[in-house]
Amino acid sequence: MAAEPVPAQALRRGRLPRWACQTSLFQLREPAFWLYLLLLVGTGLQAVSQQESLRAMSPSGWALSWLLLLLYLVPVFTVVYLLDAYEREPLSLVFGALLWGAVAATSLAGLANHDWGAVVARLLGPDVASRWTAALTAPLVEETLKAIGVVLIYLIARSEINGVVDGFVYGAMVGLGFAVVENVFYFVGQFGGQPAGVIGGFFIRVLASGLYGHVLYTGLTGMGIAWFVTRTDQRLARRLLVAGGLCLVAVLAHFLWNSPLLNLLPTGEVTPVEQLVAIPLAAAVKGVPFLVVVVLLVALARQQERRWLRAAAAGELGGPALLPEELKVLERPGRRWQARRALRRRSGRRAAALLKRLHRQQLSLAMLRTRLSDDDAPDLVSQRQRIAQTRDALRAAVAGSPAAA
Amino acid sequence: MQEEQPPSAGSRPRRWLPLAGVVLCLAAVVLGGRVAASALTVPGPPVQVAPGISVRPLSGWRVVGQGTGVLLTRGSGSLSVLPTGDADPATLAGEYARQVLRPNAQGLTLSRGLQTVRLPSGLAGVSFAYQGTFRGQGREMPLQGEVTVVVGQRDGVVFDAWAQPEVYEYERADVQTMIQTAEVG
């Protein structure tokens, strides 16, 4: 089988990513890993003591805060993790990013925000500081500390960030960890810590505005970092401009969120029903435009990955391992899921499981092609054999199913 | 047959240089605020409160009252420095809350227990926080504050700092610096 040239469109948009490399967090020979570990352990002690003091303030409020935030953490984690349609990031790195946000970034931000707040108070006076410190310090301090987490993940496992979507996944995970721990602090420390206060805090900070915060800011920063490190075909100035621009947008969105500008939150005597409507609306005014921007950017990045997949699979297309109609299904996670569901209905669970395995193997084949130039490379040959075996097993499962009988 | 290798770990400078950048960036963000805040905090000449007791107002603070003690302000926040006898700091703190704060406040709440404070001179004392609505200048105003009592060799001093609740957090660093640099005989 001759390798087909990579489509020109894909080439115009930079080199194909080097997929099919799975690297774990535990890279003992990488200095970045040891710096990451040192900072995580150092700040971990502070984070544990902060959680203990919050628990001492209100044991029931603290436990309820964590319980409610798990209800936020799990679905957001799942959605972000599944965003990468073709090559999911190694879980150790994903959890590493989450931990950086939850432990190191929050602890260091606590120290730095306090000191930079004192600088703002000295320069602008306490009156201005009381209204503007959160907007002037937190966006720069927190976005930088969270971005450092993404940079460390990249330095630990360079081969894992090979597209803008990867940067979004790691950035969003850092932001998610940060948001959860920060919310526990707010629920117990600022909303009174009693169950009613915690539920009120959960409504304001998660239900009404949970879509707009740290997950998006750091997701965007992560996209910028990923663009910088993957688009080496571009001039350095352009890479810096795009990456810096994306990071700046994240900082500006955080600034707007924390500032008194466009603050439409209800004040004075407001009935609970009015609060239920007014708070989400006020949050939406500041958050929705930025959410739309990030969703569009992620959609564009996923479209680019689809083009990469087509380019990577081009050399296999039409061969026994990958048929053109299979690629159409393969390139969209929704179509893969629908195909498996239809097969499960028709031919049972085993056939659906085999189809899932076939999809995974075909994706791996395409990934392998991004780093193996020779058509007869042993890894490619054995992957094609695995696909052939799975295809045979799938045919047998379909033929032996009650529907076929 | 030629197989491309996965990306290697990189040469030494390429591994260490970005890491040095990360460390520098971290230091600038985490320690930069402290360095900048100390550079901006310039103590003025000492103001005599009583024999052996003086306080150094930071830039932006001015003396607005001087009698049995000294009242400093920078508009949004105030610090009263009152000389006292040399009793036990905890007793003095309790008396101050009973005789000065409580009669002038509605809905006064005090922090639980007393915090121990230690000045760079080695003197020890106690502090507590409070919040309530205080009467003054013909109107009532919600205030948040902190009382610190330090007793020296011969005399003691009560530092009472207050501001509106939303502002107090931003006065606190200045107040603490002025308490730390005060001279108590």
Task: Please describe what this structure looks like.
The complex is a heterodimer of chains A (405) and B (185). Chain A has 405 residues and is an all-alpha fold. Chain A has 15 helices and no strands. With 185 residues, chain B is α+β, with helices and mostly antiparallel strands. Chain B has 3 helices and 11 strands. The longest helix of chain B has 29 residues, at 12-40. Chain A binds chain B through residues 18, 21, 27, 29-32, 35, 39, 108, 111-112, 114-123, 125-127, 129-130, 133, 137, 140-141, 144-145, 148, 151-152, 155, 158-159, 371-374, 376-379, and chain B through 1-4, 6-7, 9-10, 15-16, 18-19, 22-23, 25-26, 29-30, 32-34, 36-37, 40-41, 60, 74-77, 163, 166-167, 169-171, 173-174.
Task: Tell me the layout of helices and strands.
The complex is a heterodimer of chains A (405) and B (185).
Chain A: H1 8-12, H2 31-57, H3 59-82, H4 91-124, H5 126-136, H6 138-156, H7 164-190, H8 195-207, H9 214-230, H10 236-258, H11 272-313, H12 324-330, H13 333-347, H14 349-369, H15 378-399
Helix pairs in contact in A: 2-3, 2-4, 2-6, 2-7, 3-7, 3-8, 4-5, 4-6, 4-7, 5-10, 6-7, 6-9, 6-10, 7-8, 7-9, 9-10, 11-14, 13-14, 14-15
Chain B: H1 12-40, E1 47-50, E2 53-55, E3 62-66, E4 70-73, E5 77-84, H2 89-104, E6 105-110, E7 115-118, E8 124-136, E9 139-151, E10 156-163, H3 165-180, E11 183-184
Antiparallel strand pairs in B: 1-2, 2-11, 3-4, 4-5, 5-10, 6-8, 7-8, 8-9, 9-10
